[in-house]
User: What shape does this take?
Amino acid sequence: MHIKPIRIKHKQAIRHFSTNRQSTFNGIMALTAILSTFLLFFTNTQMQKQVYLSYCGDFGFYGKSLTLMKTNTFAFIYHGCSQTAGHFSGTWSIEDSILILDTASSSHILQSRYKIQGNDLIPLTEEENKFTLCEYYVDPFSRAI
Assistant: This one.
């Protein structure tokens, strides 16, 4: 019995090789996307477990946020009108219902001492620059309605 060899033309072989390479590449990209999504979700979940309290407040068009971490560090982020934006970080402590923020640089946007009053943080130097726990915060546009 004689078996006749199958001859594959050169163009067919290249097309077959190219299709396999594309399938492998697509599989690797899909796996990478799945693993990246899992990693981002896991990282975000772990970060959320480190948050002690989150405060929000009015600042220009977008607002400001102050996140106190369980490690006694904080992050302050603000976005205002006319491209005004920035952030500060440092450490925090509480003494006699006063939140004390310690940063490496000073700013007129973020005060260093706030009185804790219910869901609000009231600056000791000016009352209109307060923070409210984010879960109770209502933005200025919603308040106007």
